[in-house]
What we know:
mainly beta, Immunoglobulin-like, 4-stranded antiparallel sheet
Amino acid sequence: MKVAKDIYKGLNIQNCMQKSVIILTILILIAVVSCAPSGREEGPVDYRYGTQGLRINFEPNLPPYRLFDTEPFHAVVAVENMGTFTVGGPGDKIYLSGFDPTILTGISTYGAQIPRLEGRGPYTPVGDIDFTEFRGTIRALAQKRIEKYPATLLATACYGYETIASAQVCIDPNPFAPGARESVCIPQNVALGGGQGAPVAVTLVEVDPSPGRTRFRISIQNVGAGEVFRQGVQYLDKCSPYTPPLAFDEIEYIQIADVQISGVSIRPSCKPLDETSHLRLTNGQGTIFCEFTQIRGQTAYTTPITIILRYGYRTSVATNIEIQPIS
């Protein structure tokens, strides 16, 4: 009887040990899972990258390639904000052109308002997307003695956009002082590659230090696939394919909204700008020269430079259609 009790007691101890091991394993698994990354961004991320503003495309089969003159016309253009600036303000429109208005009628020459589309942000990895529609009527081709009517439809987006470029630069109050000095930085050029989430980008900030002042040579480029023009609703209206075109002194211009060092605006020192602070681009590129004199202390230090650009932008996409008579 005693032997049986000892065996039973041993079995109980073994079972308890097995249960303890199982419980300990479960607790370890819970701890591991709770400490593992969740896969979500826990804070703001760098979102000012890329070289696009709006991207537009005709939706598949809207319109279809082949149409009959008894059908209603329906085209849908997808509009996606690929950059960082919110669009959809006054004058931001999409126009449909490239067709004979006596054959395809009812398409407004005033364009379709671009809906409000927010761009990327520190907590939003992608910008908004929406759609604009165009509806019209196809006239009977037989009455015009036309066997078929091929056309290339052109969707044109005209919108205002903004670029904000930031970089860390070194400011040295006395870069040519004799003798060795301890310094946290050395003034040098800063290249900004990859864009700033907009079709116009700051590509290079060149730093030229001198006693009591630092000069900057800032290179700017149209890195998108469209055309840039002066900032303002009046120029957005002239972007339309149904109005007199933008003039020579209105295209290839961007507004230098501000240039700041340590939060201090140095835009008044920037050249060459016109009376509305616009810079003329040549072959899509331009350069401004700015100067900073409010230097603090006697030793070198790093500080942010921020450049804000504003402008109008035009981009287009085309699709082919063919209209045939029903009989």
